[in-house]
């Protein structure tokens, strides 16, 4: 059985409800992004929007939203923009010591990640 990437979002949501620890919150942001991103990446692979050869290369983080914009419909454009925003937040959480996030911001990011997955599941 293959891994369900949306389980990262479920984990982020569960953890966010149990802690205010900065490391945990940063991890929640990262897991939410990867849950949404990997779902979108696999959708793009299935639609032949991107080649399998870049699946695990770092460029894929830029390629997936770009392909959704270029090949997709209006809904896919909105999903691409959510992915870009989530990636910025993930990069901040993973690399910027001064980055802070409120509980409300975290809930918003998790909701956005859930929205990406829900929309892609409707397309599939």
At a glance:
The chain is mainly α. 73% of the residues lie in helices and 0% in strands.
What is this structure's SSE topology?
Layout: H1 6-16, H2 22-46, H3 60-71, H4 74-95, H5 103-123
Helix pairs in contact: 1-2, 1-5, 2-3, 2-4, 2-5, 3-4, 4-5
What is the total tally of β strands?
Answer: 0
Shape: globular
Tell me what portion of residues adopts beta-strand conformation: under 5%
What count of domains describes the coordinates? 1
In the predicted model, the low-confidence regions spanning at least 5 consecutive residues are none
Instruction: State the share of residues found in helices, binned by percent.
Output: over 70%
Distance between the termini: 18 Å
What is the alpha-carbon Rg in Å? Answer: 14 Å
Please identify the structural class as seen in this structure: mainly alpha
Largest sheet: none
Query: Helical stretch count?
Result: 5
String of helices and strands? HHHHH
The mean pLDDT is: 93
Characterise the protein shown here.
- This protein is mainly α and 124 residues long.
- It has one domain (6-102).
- The protein has helices at residues 6-16, 22-46, 60-71, 74-95, 103-123.
- α2 crosses α3 (60-71) and α2 packs parallel to α5.
- The longest helix has 25 residues, at 22-46.
- The radius of gyration is 14 Å and the shape is globular.
- The two termini are 18 Å apart.
